[in-house]
Every structure is written in structure tokens, then in C-alpha cells.
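thread: overnight batch results

M.L. [08:02]
morning all. the overnight job finished for the chain we discussed friday. pasting input first so we're all looking at the same thing
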Amino acid sequence: MITQSYLNEVAGYTNTKIAKVVLNGSIEITSFVIKATMDNVLTIEYLVPFGLVATVTKMELKSSAGMVISTRTVNVPIVEDTIMRHVISIEEAV
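M.L. [08:03]
and the structure it wrote out:
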């Protein structure tokens, strides 16, 4: 069994690796409302201002070197300023 302290450490490491969010393959967001870990959970929140994009179809979390850490296909119309949230739980697979 992996210890809780190690799971927390991995969540913290993952937090340090994520430098930006890329929407629809080209719109970079580097300013976060929240980017923090609590226990083994990493939470990232950021603002997508109205008018930046009509619909978010792809979200990528990337490192400062541009390496993809996570990617998700979505369909989120942006009809007003929108807060997007990613919650990443670091867990042991059983």
C-alpha cells in the first residue's frame, strides 16, 4: 500500500509541473484563480472570459516545456465569463 504522504508528494509534484492550460489547441491560459493541492488532490481553476472563445472543445494541461500532461475533449459553450475547474486525485490503483 502506498502511504498517504507519498500520494501527497506526487500531487504536489504534479502541481509544480503544470504551467498552463491550452484551450482548443491554441489559446494559452497561465493565470489561475486556484492552483493548489490539499492532501492527494490537485485543484486548478481558471477564468475563460466571455468573448475569448465561443466554445471550448479541447482542454490540455501542459508543462512549461509544452509537454501535454492531461487532455480532455469537451463541448462547453462560453456564454459568459466562465470558471473552469480541473480536479486531479492521486490514488493507488487496486
